[in-house]
Design goal:
319 residues, alpha/beta, 6-stranded mixed sheet
Length: 319
């Protein structure tokens, strides 16, 4: 039996209750006149469905991970400690509160508020690109943690926001797989990790862990954006290894906040965003990325069935 939308069901019940006396009167009149009896009220409705292939393509388009057929998607695994620089204290507290609220819903462990070293830093600055260029000039830090393409995006391309994510690969036994530039000896030596078992057709022997994130917003380029929009955009960039969504084929996502072709960006996290985050954080971290991406449509369909409320655990809804 097809599931009926909750609002449509209530409307149908109300119509049936109010129409019952009139239907009985019409039936009596019809029988007295020898006419046919009323057969009742027919209620029809359209159940909203998602296109799995379209949703999977959209989820893939915002994911930075490249080898999703064999590697898991990166997610935040350690204790999250968000901090904000460049906002008035009351605004900063609201911003941090939003990040901590979403982290709690996703079951990301949280460090004690106000008593931790920030591993998620959100800064509102005059020129984020210049700040990163100066950091790179002094320490070559970006060369140690990012590939050339991502360094080019951060240091050379214009834009109102820059996100630096430190993503590490760990084996199931907890050992860290070193980066190639951290290895001594021949430059041809590749970083590897070794362990026995733990791998299957759907599971990998390693996980991708977001360890630290820095988000730099240019103050002059965020005019007209609400604090809610900026906080929810940050959620999608720090708790998932994602990129901005742009163009006609972009998903309905807060990641379109800085898309110049989108005149009406969402006011906050969308159903698509919630489905993506829910899928990313459900189950083990060692599942191949493609397996996660294919499940986004299923979780989006579940969200549709509860009228857009976010019910991560399936036991209660939080808006």
């Amino acid at each position: 039996m097809a599931r009926m939308n909750r609002s449509l069901y209530r409307l149908a019940v109300a119509c049936a209750l109010f129409a019952a006396p009139a239907a009985l009167s019409a039936q009596s009149a019809g029988e007295d006149a020898g006419g046919p009896a009323d057969q009742g009220i027919l209620v029809t409705g359209k159940i909203r469905k998602v296109d799995p292939e379209k949703v999977t393509r959209e989820a893939r388009s915002i994911s930075r991970e490249t080898d999703v057929l064999y590697e898991p998607l990166a997610r935040f695994e350690g204790y999250a400690c968000p901090g904000v620089i460049g906002l008035k204290q009351d605004y900063a507290e609201i911003f941090v509160g939003r990040l901590r609220q979403i982290a709690e819903q996703l079951h990301i462990p949280l460090a004690k508020n106000g008593d931790c070293t920030a591993n998620i830093i959100v800064a509102f600055t005059d020129d984020g690109r210049a700040d990163l260029a100066e950091m790179q000039r002094k320490s070559k830090f970006l060369s140690q943690i990012l590939d050339p393409k991502e360094r080019h995006e951060l240091l050379d391309e214009p834009g109102p926001v820059r996100v630096v994510s430190v993503v590490e690969t760990r084996m199931q036994n907890g050992s860290l797989v070193p980066r190639a530039q951290h290895l001594a000896g021949s430059v041809s030596e590749l970083p590897t990790g070794h362990m026995e078992g733990g791998q299957s057709l759907i599971s990998t022997g390693s996980k991708r862990e977001i360890a630290n994130v820095v988000v730099l917003f240019d103050r002059s380029k965020i005019t007209g954006k609400s604090l809610q929009q900026l906080a929810d955009y940050t959620v999608m960039r720090v708790f998932a290894y994602t990129r901005d969504a742009k163009g006609e084929k972009a998903p309905d996502s807060i990641l379109t906040l800085f898309d110049e072709t989108n005149d009406t960006p969402p006011p906050g996290l969308t159903e698509f965003d919630r489905a993506y985050l829910t899928t990313l954080y459900e189950g083990p971290a060692y599942v191949r990325g493609i397996g996660k991406l294919l499940r986004v449509a299923q979780n989006l369909d579940k969200l549709h069935s509860i009228n857009g409320e976010w019910d991560y655990d399936g036991e209660g809804a939080d808006k």
